[in-house]
Amino acid sequence: MSLGRRLAGRLGPGTVVAFHGELGSGKTTMIKGICAGLGVTGTVKSPSFVIATEYAGRLPVYHLDLYRIAADAELDGLDLDEYFGGS
Fold first, then answer.
1. How far is 29 from 2, CA to CA, in rounded Å?
2. Tens-place pLDDT, residues 25-65
3. Looking at 14-81, which runs of residues are DSSP E strands?
4. Which residues contact 61 (CB under 8 A, 6 or more apart)?
5. Cβ distance 11 to 59 under 8 Å?
6. 48 and 27 in contact (C-beta within 8 Å)?
7. Residue 60 C-alpha from the chain's centroid
8. Which of 40, 30, 39, 44 is nearest to 2 (CA)?
9. Portion of the chain with pLDDT greater than 70, in percent
10. Cβ count near 31 (within 10 Å)
11. CA-to-CA dists, residue 32 to 1, 46, 59, angstroms
């Protein structure tokens, strides 16, 4: 949590932070710290069943859980560029 809070102070618009690790390795705890550091209020939890959760803070936080995405074709099908306001 502390590391996440410190990291949040260095984040700017458009920054992408990616975590990769085994179940229970602390990825959600890190995003909880980042969200706390960005002033997000409310409960921050893993979006395991919905794939994406958005939080409002100093910067918007888009928390994606892609562990069930098995192939690039599936990832392409999510239209993430459109989701984030890209082309």
1. 10
2. 888 899 999 999 999 998 988 776 667 788 899 998 888 87
3. 52-55, 61-64
4. 31, 34, 35, 38, 40, 54, 55
5. yes
6. no
7. 10
8. 30
9. 77
10. 23
11. 7, 9, 14
